[in-house]
Amino acid sequence: MLGILTRPRRHQAPPSLDPALLFACILGLLVAVTAGLWASRPDMGQGANITKAGRPSDDYYLALDRAGHADHHVLYFGTDDEALGHLRRADVLLLGNSRLMFAARRRVLDPFFEARGQRYYVLGFGFREGDRFPLDIIEKFDLRPRLVIVNADGFFTGAYSDFARAVRSDTAIGARQLQSESEIGHEVRRVIHQLVPNWVDLFGRPGFPWRQELVIYRSRTNGTWYLSPWAEGLRRVESRPLHEPPLSNREVEAARRFKAAMDRRGARLVLTYVPTSRPLGGGPALFAELLGVPFVMATPPGLRTEDDDHLDEPSAVAWSQAFIRELERVVP
């Protein structure tokens, strides 16, 4: 009896909370806090771009967000019937890397080509894509443009980007699945981040320098990009001599091969240059001299960039305006 009376009392563990209930409570608290902040701070979402990015119209499909990049797949496999139809009917193709995609502004190009009864399509890509990938698309869908305009800086590489090689090894079914998942995931994230945003995106913290997520939509009608956000350029684009550096043997071979492919399709080739502080290849004007084709010089003053690679929006508009003025002189 004494041993029983002196035995230490066991402490019972407190009942554990149901994980689902705990999650629901935390989620509800975050949603309530977020709703209060949205109401008191309408400008709070400026950092979380996914909450305010939205396609301008149904003419645009998702090309890129933080979750993935579907642009190459859509155009290489022709997963968007409407976009493919416009691409096939285009009288004018504009080719180049992401520098051209930033620079080519729809509000400038649309009235110019519409007034001349011409349909255009900007068939440029990110990942510093060169000549091989768009040429594959031209040949795959038997495109027959009358005029092909190329941003010659870094275009004639004779190679695919690493991303393009991965895309070419995919399948049409995989491409359609990727596009569907990208679109659905993008819209779901936009809704969820309205309720519970990524607080790092909103306010940032050390080690997370990028506060805004770049979202890109692409026009089915003419291939132009719509970007959100588009950072203001804080640095001037440095000018460069367009006849330097000399062309490499690989660039010469790639340029001649591309010109021959356009000749077989009855397309006239014209070269241009989107100013940048980071040249990618041989002097852009040298390609025009090599191939014996016109070179559209569009270098308006005061161009600015945020990343030393791409033009900001006012500069892109200025470049597009200068480009069409010079294009009309070169190709009446």
What would you say this structure looks like, in words?
The chain has 13 helices and 11 strands. It has 332 residues and is an alpha/beta fold. The protein has one domain: Rossmann fold (3-Layer(aba) Sandwich). The strands form 3 sheets. A 5-stranded parallel β-sheet has the order 4-3-5-9-10.
Short descriptors:
332 residues, alpha/beta, Rossmann fold, 5-stranded parallel sheet, 4-stranded antiparallel sheet, 12% strand, elongated
Task: Give a quick account of the main beta sheet: strands, pairing sense, barrel closure.
Answer: 5 strands, parallel
Mean pLDDT: 87
Output the CATH topology: Rossmann fold
What is the terminal-to-terminal distance?
Answer: 113 Å
What gross morphology would you assign? elongated
Low-confidence stretches: 1-5
Q: Please list the strands of the largest sheet in the order they lie side by side.
A: 4-3-5-9-10
Order of helices and strands: HHEEHHEHHEHEHHHEEEHEHEEH
List the helices and strands and how they pair.
Blueprint: H1 2-6, H2 19-40, E1 60-65, E2 68-69, H3 71-77, H4 81-89, E3 92-95, H5 98-103, H6 106-115, E4 120-122, H7 132-140, E5 147-151, H8 162-168, H9 172-195, H10 199-203, E6 215-219, E7 225-228, E8 235-236, H11 249-264, E9 268-272, H12 284-291, E10 295-296, E11 304-305, H13 313-330
Parallel strand pairs: 3-4, 3-5, 5-9, 9-10
Antiparallel strand pairs: 1-2, 1-6, 6-7, 8-11
